[in-house]
Amino acid sequence: MSVQTSPQPADVTPAPAPFLDVRDLRVHFPTEDGLVKSVDGVSFTLEKGRTLGIVGESGSGKSVTSLALLGLHKGTRAQVSGEIWLEGKELVALPETEMRALRGRTVSMIFQDPLSALHPFFTVGAQIAEAYRVHHKVSKKEARDRAVEMLKRVGIPQPERRVRDYPHQFSGGMRQRAMIAMSLVCDPALLIADEPTTALDVTVQAQILDLIRDLQEEFGSAVVIITHDLGVVSDIADDILVMYGGRRIEYGTTRDVLKQPQHPYTWGLLQSMPHLTGDVGERLDPIPGTPPSLINLPAGCAFHPRCAYKGWVHEGRCTVDRPELRPVSGTGRHIAACHLTDEAKHEIRDGVRKGA
Amino acid sequence: MFRYLIRRLLAAAVIMLVITTITFFIFFALPSDPALLACGKTCSPSRLAEIRHSLGLDRSYLTQYWEFFKGLFAGRDFGDQSVRIHCGAPCLGVSFQTDTPVLTTLLSDFPADLSLGLGAAVAFLILGVGLGTVAAVRRGRAADKAAVGLALFGVSVQIYFIGLLLLYLFVDKFQILPTSGYTPITEDPAGWFKGLILPWATLVIVYLAMYTRLTRSSMLEVFAEDYMRTARAKGLPAAKVVLKHGLRAAITPIITIFGMDVGSLIGGSAVITESVFGINGIGKLAVDSVQNSDLPVILGTTLFAATFVVLANVVVDLVYGLVDPRVRLA
Amino acid sequence: MTRSTRRSRTVALTASAVMIALGATACGGSSSNSGSGTPGKGGTLTVLDKADFDHLDPQRVYTTEGSSMDEEIVRTLTGWDETGSKPKLVGDLATDTGTPSKDATVWTFHLRHGVKYQDGTEVTAPDVKYGVERFFSSDINGGPPYASQWLVGGADYKGPYQGKELGSIQTPDKYTIVFHLNQPVADFNETTAMPGWSAVPKAHDTGSTYDTKVWSDGPYMIKSYTKNKELVLTRNTHWSQATDPIRQQNVDEMDVKFGQDEAAIDQQIKADAGTAQTSIQQWPIAGSDLAQLANDPSLKSRYYKIPAPGINYLAINTTRVKDLRVRQAIEYAIDKTTVRGAFGGSAYGDYATTMLSPGIGGYQKFNLYSANPAGNLAKAKELMKQAGDPKLTMSIAVENTPTHEHFADAVKTALERIGIHVNISPIDAANYFSTVNNTKNQYDLTWGDWIADWPNASTVLPTLFDGRLIKKNPQANQDLSYLNDPKVNALIDKAAKMTDVTQRNAAYGQMDEQIMKDAAVVPLMYMNFSDMSGSKVGGVIPDTILAEPSLVHVYIKH
């Protein structure tokens, strides 16, 4: 079996000037113990009105990637390289003052835990109004009206009254709605949602995801959803990017990735996802082992210490050679980085299905 | 809110009662004898007994205690021979040493403590929080190291030394400031200010350290909070992120300590500063009263200081409620 | 007399020493502009005091600072003219130093005519009688005990406030006052130089609050007095130089400021800037600053080293350390050089070998023990050997101040060398004397100091060594040696009856020697007190009676 190495990965020769184009993004943090390579050569594209799901365990680099999109590493010790093109502007080299003008207005973010992400000492209304006033020359009154309007839009009852409440007076779901209201207050072109439902209970999760989808349709924004849960993105995302150890290991349309997952890690993620169609007694298998050190990634395939199938690859290549991203045959732009042959993959997946 | 206040004030009254009682009985447990002290170096037992009687010390502790409380609410008359001294309610007693009603002395000393304490407190709060903020923002860099170093200096030097040094430099050597001392603001506002510059500076140097460090660590803690990232993600300018979102949260733990400090400073805890700069405040009064075994003044100064500390606590709680909506008071 | 019962200095001794040293290097020449200017009238003298006088009421004052200040306000029957080489007793309110009866039990004084109070009325004998009677009221406490000890009927008299008079003070006419004493007192006219032997006009007596309202018949009167803050004296325009042999009235005002730390005052006066140039201190220079300032040549013209009629001593409790040889061994063993070092070195005072200091009537120079102030270890060991080399452990009572702790260490080191183990008992400085003077609290060794009320042995030895007084004043016992030697007691009684001062002084010298023979006490230093003034202060007289800088001739140089 010959290894196909492509100097030009298939996905970086896309349609002309996508809305968001991330190229070879690297975010490194110098520490006393060494250089932490949180994000190491990530690329993807996203069009307006589309949704990308970035999936991975904690420490896979997905949140760091999202912060890079907001330019929030500027002024810290983080070393950021690569390119982020947004509507024709390159963000990595953009000065902080100009980046600041984009933050909250063009790119905005929904954070994971709305209780800690909202300031406990300011009213919900004031925080939303503030986000609006940063980018719009309006009176306090107008900003306040806008906040009420946004609260209404995200489905908070009695917004005129709740606008004066503090975050701790809101329920978890309401807080996340308020957080969403705040991030959408300036009609951003790119919305990043970092684990938007993790802190919420299941019924509320669905509501929030519905809300994001509805609002996306309404505003026409591009959305990046970051999650460790494939289930979250399966309904909502158009594309899925799976990250491991700061790198991409699989990237393609949601349909391709879910139907024909190529990487043992993605298999693991899928297995740890509850299926409504699956047996009641089906066991959710978390991936055994722990995420790798970002200072000293394992040689070869970063996943190999946790991979149950490295024996299927000849001569221990998994521990020596780093697998390149290869297009998956028979798909448009589905790529994955694994030494396993297609045959082996089929065999394994069949076996897994049977065994389960 | 109103009920809370009533409750707190009642609790404060109980605390005061306890403090007074403890002070009162500790005093009698001490070996010092105010009558003996008043009597002089060569004192005959009969004379001692007379003095003890005229000071009211020959009665039982409980009677004296009761008299003290009666005085608080109804006033008392003192002196049985040479002069009658009326001490109106709330009467804290009459000094063994000066035969002046304690409250009169306290009230005449109080403006000095108020000026010294409040002025210094405002200065060290603003400077300390400012320096601490700068240190936190510039963490690990020169400005941080300078601020932390400055704070360390302030913590390690003694008030006594700093006071003398400032006095020497600004009064004796360069003669920029007049010989210190307290001038009432009503007499001469400029003199009041000039006379207090060095005492303020002394207290600032000493207290600044704590406030800088406190602000710095509190700020760093706040910087790690998610809502700070949210504030940046909104596109707020860095200064606004730090000063509005950061400071608002970081200031809460500082308020508590600040309240206590102001309370105790106003209540007369700046004894050494008072002494170095010749400001006759409640702190000196308290120390002198202990040395002179002047029970009414000991009780008075203790009660006075306690009042301010307790009061400061109540104010802190109220302010806390204003700052942190999560602890709004029922 | 006590210097003050408030003698605590607990903070940062080293800090002040550092500051003074800094001052010495940084502005050593600051006093180069001193010495200029001539005596003249006018100006304000600032007096910087650590603390307020405990009393200014002449019948209550018993501290040297208060007594010295009272000299400006209150005239006493007799007084000390200290312009000469030795203090000379003169009549003050009285025309002369009084006339005793043959047995010195009746003393008669004639008052000067035309001595005026601040309101212009004349001072009369009944006012003096009234003033002395005030001593007896328990409201007027704190003063010396002599009036009640000596005046006939004094034991039962309770003061003038119930309308009763004391029969043993007679005023046959407006200008004559006669005192009837219950025992001969040959130096009674020295007693009457104390502030309480003065006039108080009944109409202006405010009883226990008279401290701030003292009615003046001296050159200065109280303009304002806020306790613990400030006392301002201003000229008494009714005072006339012609009637006063002791005082002058040069400055317009005296502004006494209380409450500044000793070291801060030392530093300020040394630096001699601004009002410090016209300032003087009454509290002595802080011990920590003493060595530094005493040896500063630039301060010479405004540094006053005043020998006090006082003694710093270590009492040996003779009822606990019963073996005379052990007590003698202690006399030989103590190293007075290290002891004096602890108290501030040579500026503090000269090594003492007697309980009476050189300025005191009755003083005789002798030394029964080691000629070398560092002690005689061989002799001390020999005495211990004679005593059978007992293994002894002794307690020593000192104040809980750094100075005293150093002192106690010096004693401990010295006595360990002769096999006596010493346990140090530091006592709160403010309560030191009320503790050790209480017979319930006894130690083997007790530190003490004593300043004579007037420069005669009669105010030292009978007070400190009359063993018969121990039982009488169990809470105010001054006999820290608990010495009750019949020989000493007999000498006390004998001297008390003597009306001839020379003979009496000889008897006191004998008494001093007997006490030293008993080895009841180790005299350590004859004390000096040192004060400074600003460069524009002139006319300061070292007052060796009170050990204060006397202000009676003070002026501001212009």
From TrEMBL, chain A:
<keyword id="KW-0067">ATP-binding</keyword>
<dbReference type="InterPro" id="IPR017871">
    <property type="entry name" value="ABC_transporter-like_CS"/>
</dbReference>
<protein>
    <submittedName>
        <fullName>Dipeptide/oligopeptide/nickel ABC transporter ATP-binding protein</fullName>
    </submittedName>
</protein>
<dbReference type="InterPro" id="IPR003439">
    <property type="entry name" value="ABC_transporter-like_ATP-bd"/>
</dbReference>
<keyword id="KW-0813">Transport</keyword>
<dbReference type="InterPro" id="IPR003593">
    <property type="entry name" value="AAA+_ATPase"/>
</dbReference>
<dbReference type="InterPro" id="IPR027417">
    <property type="entry name" value="P-loop_NTPase"/>
</dbReference>
<dbReference type="Pfam" id="PF08352">
    <property type="entry name" value="oligo_HPY"/>
</dbReference>
<feature type="domain" description="ABC transporter">
    <location>
        <begin position="22"/>
        <end position="270"/>
    </location>
</feature>
<keyword id="KW-0547">Nucleotide-binding</keyword>
<dbReference type="GO" id="GO:0005524">
    <property type="term" value="F:ATP binding"/>
</dbReference>
<comment type="similarity">
    <text>Belongs to the ABC transporter superfamily.</text>
</comment>
<dbReference type="Pfam" id="PF00005">
    <property type="entry name" value="ABC_tran"/>
</dbReference>
<keyword id="KW-0472">Membrane</keyword>
<dbReference type="InterPro" id="IPR050388">
    <property type="entry name" value="ABC_Ni/Peptide_Import"/>
</dbReference>
From TrEMBL, chain B:
<dbReference type="Pfam" id="PF19300">
    <property type="entry name" value="BPD_transp_1_N"/>
</dbReference>
<keyword id="KW-0472">Membrane</keyword>
<feature type="transmembrane region" description="Helical">
    <location>
        <begin position="297"/>
        <end position="323"/>
    </location>
</feature>
<dbReference type="Pfam" id="PF00528">
    <property type="entry name" value="BPD_transp_1"/>
</dbReference>
<keyword id="KW-1133">Transmembrane helix</keyword>
<comment type="similarity">
    <text>Belongs to the binding-protein-dependent transport system permease family.</text>
</comment>
<keyword id="KW-1003">Cell membrane</keyword>
<keyword id="KW-0812">Transmembrane</keyword>
<protein>
    <submittedName>
        <fullName>ABC transporter permease</fullName>
    </submittedName>
</protein>
<feature type="transmembrane region" description="Helical">
    <location>
        <begin position="9"/>
        <end position="30"/>
    </location>
</feature>
<feature type="transmembrane region" description="Helical">
    <location>
        <begin position="116"/>
        <end position="137"/>
    </location>
</feature>
<feature type="transmembrane region" description="Helical">
    <location>
        <begin position="191"/>
        <end position="210"/>
    </location>
</feature>
<dbReference type="InterPro" id="IPR035906">
    <property type="entry name" value="MetI-like_sf"/>
</dbReference>
<dbReference type="InterPro" id="IPR000515">
    <property type="entry name" value="MetI-like"/>
</dbReference>
<feature type="transmembrane region" description="Helical">
    <location>
        <begin position="254"/>
        <end position="277"/>
    </location>
</feature>
Automatic annotation (TrEMBL), chain C:
<dbReference type="InterPro" id="IPR030678">
    <property type="entry name" value="Peptide/Ni-bd"/>
</dbReference>
<dbReference type="InterPro" id="IPR000914">
    <property type="entry name" value="SBP_5_dom"/>
</dbReference>
<feature type="signal peptide">
    <location>
        <begin position="1"/>
        <end position="26"/>
    </location>
</feature>
<protein>
    <submittedName>
        <fullName>ABC transporter substrate-binding protein</fullName>
    </submittedName>
</protein>
<dbReference type="Pfam" id="PF00496">
    <property type="entry name" value="SBP_bac_5"/>
</dbReference>
<keyword id="KW-0732">Signal</keyword>
<dbReference type="InterPro" id="IPR039424">
    <property type="entry name" value="SBP_5"/>
</dbReference>
<feature type="domain" description="Solute-binding protein family 5">
    <location>
        <begin position="88"/>
        <end position="467"/>
    </location>
</feature>
